[in-house]
Amino acid sequence: MRIRFASSGPQQTMPTVQLNDRAFVLVSGDDAETFLQNIITTDLAMLADGEVKPGALLSPQGKILFDFLVARIPGGFRLDCPAEAASDFVKRLMLYRLRAKVQISVENPGLVAASWNFDSTSSAEDSPSSRDESTVRDTRFPAALGVVRHYGKSIAGPDATAWNALRVANGIPESGTDYALGDTFPHDALLDQTGGIGFGKGCYVGQEVVSRMQHRGTARRRILIAEGASQLPAAGTEIVANGRPLGALGTVTGKTGLAMVRIDRVKDAVDAGVPITAGGIELSLSIPDWAKFAFPQAASTESD
After folding, report:
1. Residues forming a β-bridge with 244
2. 86 within some domain
3. How many domains does the chain have?
């Protein structure tokens, strides 16, 4: 697939990859927005047409049960989620439906592809606007990267390696490889950084825990970008400093990867000059450039 840029010069190729193992949960009806607004982390009042935002449905204890990317469609919303979780996700939504005037259905599998270096001035044939072939901006990434998702299209192209490399380079995690559903707070997965939590909206499931973590600044586990001098070991490899566990690697592409780690323990190790390693490979860990959190200013005193 090619796109036409507004500036003069030769036509450029837009990298595009098919994303497998995705499903769409469709929520429509008169009460669709109110229904979702009252239970998910995303503030739908801030969701514009033509864009997709991250979000989650939490447990009452504030941990992510289901995560997704949500976009507006005629009459409702499309929640783009991992295919293996779609059935359980629908069942959970049905528990909250009560008397709300909503219809909930699932498309599994769901056709979705991702592109970057996308220009909004591309030709009409490259930017389908129908419900089944819509192109929406992925707001998790900096706008300058031009990352979009194409729905309802099957695109012949390379495997997901290039997509994973883009995610790693920009510190964008996804459940499964980078964090476990049912055992991760939204802050851990950077949903507070990528626009996946509406701190100004009303209550939703798990909201009290998330708000408390935000106001107290108690988020200690975070996704960081890991870099090594050589090929990094596989996802799931434990990250340690002087025998003390810090976390584990997630998605790995060559010498770089994502890592879910305790940032207080990373701070301790860096301040003490202790090497941080995974599978014997020394790592440097950094916060994504766009993120607004920082390492703790005081060293941790915890021994666990």
Report:
1. 241
2. yes
3. 2
